[in-house]
């Protein structure tokens, strides 16, 4: 029966599901996915994209027929690409098992094509090679733009006109940065849409693929104890804290050129904020979720300089006080109106904990703050997949929920562009603070102005 078949298809890995569909009378034409990593010689491709693709292969999440092509200007043979890629693949999923065999199988599916990013001719050559591997099956093509942003549009133009699929879908994953401000971001969007439909563009923000960020919606919308409290009536403040356990070592030039506001705040933190603050979407459909996120971003006031502390450089939810708290100092206990705090630690040491007031065991009435603690490493033995694995799988499956729509991007830039302009015009000097401290002193003053304790 159709219902049972659907349930079975939903519960098995993609590779098996593909086989099953084929077995069921060959109704579906066999399909294949060709993944082209544009900029395959680069850092991101080596460190993240190829390892994530291998992890998906290892887990049986890639379709039966797939081919991976590296594309870049550097001259390399297929063997040299495989050799380069093999250095960054790890057997992290099942350390007990020797995954060497799987690696060999995976590497045999990886190929390389040398080409310029703005050459139609070179993309036509790529197209020919892809077709040979696709062997007449229905072809689906995914291009991952792992190249500097100034060449995005050239590559999209050539890929879309000379190497897109004629029988199946063509999708393009675009890496940040998506512009430097509203104007440049809008120009990039306009150029991309000249060659692609919006639903072909997958703007990646790898923070959205992180386990704890995905879990944020589950925590909110499937636990009755949180959602009714998720309002300003009960929450006094929310702090999104981005702290790194290393300095700017070696990245000074990058920060001078692009900066942490553009690189982290305008995208990663704002995306998490939107997920945190959105109303319940009507379904888990990508468009319903993204509609709610856009509403949050559009409802926010552009950020004013007076509300900002710039310093050289967890989600923390502080609830309000319990009205008329019985257990305050006046009642003879030691607790001074301590509030509940929910902390969602995205990285490192993924975990969720809730600070509660608790009675210290004993004859007296002493209270302290204890943690109801969900530390992922202690609770789950399975290693958490890298964000790129989740996102690559979603792009292959056409799941857009964790990718950024163009109107989300516009709304995000509209919040930060006036602020960035002012900071740059006034040549503002960031406040220094010692490495390992809790951030610039100004942040504590700003928090105090709003009657909030920082960090
Ligand atoms: P790279 O600087 O390593 O560039 C990737 C490849 O693009 C290079 O190997 C090179 O290949 C080609 N390339 C570099 N500069 C130019 C140029 N000026 N003109 C033409 N081709 C060029 O970038 P990453 O791999 O670090 O990052 C790729 C993209 O992902 C970028 O947009 C980056 O902003 C983004 N990103 C990177 C992250 C990371 O951790 N590295 C994290 C998040 C986003 P060849 O010379 O062989 O053609």
Automatic annotation (TrEMBL):
<keyword id="KW-0521">NADP</keyword>
<feature type="domain" description="Glucose-6-phosphate dehydrogenase C-terminal">
    <location>
        <begin position="313"/>
        <end position="454"/>
    </location>
</feature>
<dbReference type="GO" id="GO:0050661">
    <property type="term" value="F:NADP binding"/>
</dbReference>
<dbReference type="InterPro" id="IPR001282">
    <property type="entry name" value="G6P_DH"/>
</dbReference>
<dbReference type="InterPro" id="IPR019796">
    <property type="entry name" value="G6P_DH_AS"/>
</dbReference>
<dbReference type="InterPro" id="IPR036291">
    <property type="entry name" value="NAD(P)-bd_dom_sf"/>
</dbReference>
<comment type="pathway">
    <text>Carbohydrate degradation; pentose phosphate pathway; D-ribulose 5-phosphate from D-glucose 6-phosphate (oxidative stage): step 1/3.</text>
</comment>
<dbReference type="InterPro" id="IPR022674">
    <property type="entry name" value="G6P_DH_NAD-bd"/>
</dbReference>
<keyword id="KW-0560">Oxidoreductase</keyword>
<feature type="domain" description="Glucose-6-phosphate dehydrogenase NAD-binding">
    <location>
        <begin position="37"/>
        <end position="215"/>
    </location>
</feature>
<dbReference type="Pfam" id="PF00479">
    <property type="entry name" value="G6PD_N"/>
</dbReference>
<keyword id="KW-0313">Glucose metabolism</keyword>
<feature type="domain" description="Glucose-6-phosphate dehydrogenase C-terminal">
    <location>
        <begin position="218"/>
        <end position="308"/>
    </location>
</feature>
<dbReference type="InterPro" id="IPR022675">
    <property type="entry name" value="G6P_DH_C"/>
</dbReference>
<dbReference type="Pfam" id="PF02781">
    <property type="entry name" value="G6PD_C"/>
</dbReference>
<dbReference type="GO" id="GO:0009051">
    <property type="term" value="P:pentose-phosphate shunt, oxidative branch"/>
</dbReference>
<dbReference type="GO" id="GO:0004345">
    <property type="term" value="F:glucose-6-phosphate dehydrogenase activity"/>
</dbReference>
<keyword id="KW-0119">Carbohydrate metabolism</keyword>
<dbReference type="GO" id="GO:0009570">
    <property type="term" value="C:chloroplast stroma"/>
</dbReference>
<dbReference type="GO" id="GO:0006006">
    <property type="term" value="P:glucose metabolic process"/>
</dbReference>
<comment type="similarity">
    <text>Belongs to the glucose-6-phosphate dehydrogenase family.</text>
</comment>
<comment type="function">
    <text>Catalyzes the rate-limiting step of the oxidative pentose-phosphate pathway, which represents a route for the dissimilation of carbohydrates besides glycolysis. The main function of this enzyme is to provide reducing power (NADPH) and pentose phosphates for fatty acid and nucleic acid synthesis which are involved in membrane synthesis and cell division.</text>
</comment>
<protein>
    <recommendedName>
        <fullName>glucose-6-phosphate dehydrogenase (NADP(+))</fullName>
        <ecNumber>1.1.1.49</ecNumber>
    </recommendedName>
</protein>
């Amino acid at each position: 029966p159709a219902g049972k078949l659907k349930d079975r298809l939903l519960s098995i890995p993609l590779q098996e599901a593909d086989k099953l569909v084929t077995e069921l009378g060959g109704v579906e034409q066999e399909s294949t996915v060709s993944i082209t990593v544009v900029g395959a010689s680069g850092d991101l491709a080596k460190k993240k994209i190829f390892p994530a693709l291998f992890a998906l292969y290892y887990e049986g999440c890639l379709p039966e027929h797939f081919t991976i092509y590296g594309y870049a200007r550097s001259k390399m043979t297929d063997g040299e690409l495989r050799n380069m890629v093999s250095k960054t693949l790890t057997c992290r999923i099942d350390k007990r098992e020797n995954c060497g065999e799987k690696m060999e199988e995976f590497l045999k599916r990886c190929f390389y094509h040398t080409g310029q990013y703005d050459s139609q001719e070179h993309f036509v050559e790529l197209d020919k090679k892809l077709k040979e591997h696709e062997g007449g099956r229905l072809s689906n093509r995914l291009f991952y733009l792992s190249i500097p942003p100034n060449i995005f549009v050239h590559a999209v133009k050539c890929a879309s006109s000379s190497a897109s699929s004629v029988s199946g879908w063509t999708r393009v994953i675009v890496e940040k940065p998506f512009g430097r401000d509203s104007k440049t971001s809008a120009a990039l969007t306009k150029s991309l849409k000249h060659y692609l439909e919006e639903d072909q563009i997958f703007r990646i923000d790898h923070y959205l693929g992180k386990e704890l960020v995905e879990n944020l919606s589950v925590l909110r919308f499937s636990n009755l104890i949180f959602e009714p409290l998720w309002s300003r009536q009960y929450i006094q403040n929310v702090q999104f804290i981005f702290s790194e356990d290393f300095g700017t070592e070696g990245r000074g030039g990058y920060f001078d050129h692009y900066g942490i506001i553009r690189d982290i705040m305008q995208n990663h933190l704002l995306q998490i904020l939107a997920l945190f603050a959105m109303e319940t979407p009507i379904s888990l459909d990508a468009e319903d979720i993204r509609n709610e996120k856009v509403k949050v971003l559009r409802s926010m006031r552009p950020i004013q300089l007076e509300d900002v502390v710039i310093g050289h450089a967890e989600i923390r939810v502080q609830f309000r006080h319990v009205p008329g708290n019985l257990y305050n100092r006046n009642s003879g206990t030691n607790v001074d109106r301590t509030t509940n705090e929910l902390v969602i630690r995205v990285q490192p040491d993924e975990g969720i904990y809730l600070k509660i007031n608790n009675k210290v065991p004993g004859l007296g009435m002493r209270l302290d703050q204890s943690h109801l603690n969900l530390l992922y490493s202690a609770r789950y033995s399975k290693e958490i997949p890298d964000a790129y694995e989740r996102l690559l799988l979603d792009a292959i499956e056409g799941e857009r929920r964790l990718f950024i729509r163009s109107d989300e991007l516009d709304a995000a830039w509209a919040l930060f562009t006036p602020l960035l302009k002012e900071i740059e015009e006034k040549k503002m000097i960031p406040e220094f603070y010692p490495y390992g401290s809790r951030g610039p002193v100004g942040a504590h003053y700003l928090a105090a102005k709003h009657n909030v304790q920082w960090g």
